Every structure is written in C-alpha cells, then in structure tokens.
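Team,

Forwarding the record for the chain on the shared tracking sheet. I've put the sequence and predicted structure together so nobody has to dig through attachments.
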Amino acid sequence: MISLKNIRGRLAPSPTGALHLGNIRTFMITWLLVRSRGGELVMRIEDLDHPKVKQGAVEGMIEDLRWLGFDWDEGYGCGPDAESYIQSRRLKHYAAAIELLKKKQLIYPCTCSRKDVESGHSAPHAGETLFYDGRCRERYTSFASAQEALPAGRVPAWRFKVPRAEVVSVPDVFCGEYSQVVSEMSGDFVLARHELGAGYMLAVVVDDSAMGINQVVRGDDLLVATPRQILIYRALGLELPQYIHLPLVVGTDGKRLAKRHGDTRVSAFREAGVTSERIIGLLAASCGWAEAGEELSLFNLLDRFDLNLLPHKPFVWRDELLS
C-alpha cells in the first residue's frame, strides 16, 4: 500500500547505452506513481560505471525520454545546477560517507580480487551474489597499508562489515516483504572500489537521501541487493525510502531484455517511424491499463493507472508487438 503523502521519486538512467523498452516500462510506472499523486520527480544520471559509459549516451537518453513525453521537476536537464545530479560530479559526498563509516568502524579496506573471492567459496550460495568470507576484515590497519600490498594500478575496495546472522527485511509495496540474512547471502560486501567511495552500492543510498527521494521504483532483479542498501542506510543514520520492485521485460527465453533479443532501443523504433503513443500504448497494455493496439500518451494514462492491475510476472517481448 502506498501511504506516502508527498512523494519524491527519481528517474536514474545509466549512460552505458541507449534506453530500451525495459527501461521505459519501469520509468513509465515511476512517472505515473509520482504524477498520479501530485509528487515530484528528480532526474539523476548514474555514470559511475566508467568503462561502460558511452559518449553521447546522456544526451540520447534525455532526447528519447522527452520524445516519449516524460518530464521531471528537478535534476539533470532541468535548471542551471545539472552537474550536481551527475554521480561522477558528486564524489565529495561519497567520500564524506566513507569517512563517517570509518569513524564508526563499519568498513574496512580489502585487497582481494574477484578471483580470490571465487576461490574462497566453500559452498554454493543463493542467487548470483558472490559470497565473501571476510578474510581482509582484520588484515590491514589502514587504507594506505592495504594499498601498499597491491601492485601499481590497483586500489583496495571498501567492504561493509555485515552483522552476523541478522535478518534484514524489505517491506516492498508490490512484491511483499522480502527478507535476507546478508551475512549468509553475500558476506561483507563491496561498497566501492574507489578510495573516495565512488561505487554504486554506496552512491545510490547517499544520493537518494540527499535528494529527498522517499520512493524508489526499479526492476525486481535489484530486490536481492536491497537488504545491503538498507544496512548502509542504517549505518549512516538515514531514513529508508519506500521500495517498489517491478517485474522486468524479458525475451522469449525468459532472460532480461538485451541485444540478443533484437533491437529494442527507443531510438531505433523512432527512426523506423513508430510513434511515441504506440510505444506507450504497448507498454500500458502490458500493465493492464490499455487494450492491445491503443495509442496513448503518458498523460492519457493518469486516470487509468492502478498498480494493483500490474501483473506480477515479467512482460515477454516479441518482435511482432511493434512490427
């Protein structure tokens, strides 16, 4: 049940490629959740995955979203302070969070590579989460001493000290309550592989809190990571947002939408002459808010929006749906 009176949601695309139908479906539901309740929407660019960031991707994403009818009240592309909503420009905020966690002795530097962690597995763990056995917990006295143990070019990771055997619950509005013993699922997890704390797991918590985001809407593939983020919220003394994890768009093989399922980029449909109303209509029909073939705008959906009608199973994409 959505009980928030003053919703502040966010669109937070990553410029690692063009937006596809899976992204847009989640963004559409986010937009409708906020706009149907008179809330505010923030645009944030999550570009910390530097090796995968594509030149010009940000501008392309914004153009696609505007073409589809999306608007937002604050953030990138809205006002003069756009750079303060780009994660790579917010490193000082993550550094401050790392300093606080250091003072509380809740994190430690780790020199283990992914190969080291994989070789330390003694038993399989649930899901795709890589389990860490905590071997660096008491190994180094400082970040500098950990750095000295590594070859040039490598930087220690910051790991979070996970409380042992503690059950962390996520009261998700759509999925229901999800619980996890983080110490058994992932062990001490990586906050960031950057001295200043620039890593997704920490940054998303710091930014959502700093930007006043009280409702987080995203794909249900991220539900398994949410208990870790809740531990970070608690450690930093921050208020938790309301979570809504949604089913993904998948291919006929049941896997999340990707290049192997064909070209599902918004820009590709646009170039092929598909209208924005046709795309929104198709995605609305997949949510139970429209009939097949209807062409609609986002604003047309405000009176039809009902999260209770959204199927709990993934939406299966087939090429013929927009052919």
